[in-house]
Design goal:
heterodimer, A: 114 residues, mainly beta, seven-stranded mixed sheet, 54% strand, globular, B: mainly beta
Amino acid sequence: GAVVSQHPSRVICKSGTSVKIECRSLDFQATTMFWYRQFPKKSLMLMATSNEGSKATYEQGVEKDKFLINHASLTLSTLTVTSAHPEDSSFYICSAREAGNRQYFGPGTRLTVT
Amino acid sequence: QQPVQSPQAVILREGEDAVINCSSSKALYSVHWYRQKHGEAPVFLMILLKGGEQKGHDKISASFNEKKQQSSLYLTASQLSYSGTYFCGTEQWDRDDKIIFGKGTRLHILP
């Protein structure tokens, strides 16, 4: 199957700092990528839809100024958590959609804000 | 609209069968099934695009009843490796490619 990578896999940062997470589709071009957030033992909550060359579409309740998304190319989307706080600690997962409608997930990034 | 999954959790013995259901209050374009192991990202199992479609590989299969806006995942002769949390993701006709996931069904297989 298609491969999606995320970097870093784990990050610990201090409260007030910003963290950037990268999501790459390695063997296909993805015009659309998605960012999800998952709390322990909970479902994946869609945060935003990232489209190459245009502004991301955020789900209701997600602060666009806090979670900055950039889809610079057909294989790369980035999520920047700005001025991170402990409540932003979570598992962030990206996914990329291929032409055949399948959506493949990256391995996830575990963010811990101290 | 988040799809509803049932049951919330299942405990089986190796070799037993299980059915996981996923239903939506909205008309669906597609249904996606994923399995997630603890601490890992979800792994794609299958996608169902057409009403009445049934798919499967190995001993895991799924059906999609478009009229009833529901899908079921069937695990036959379960193996220890089937343990994990199963999520259905649904795509509505008016949702611009977005997949919304249910709360998941935790499946635990005992030897």
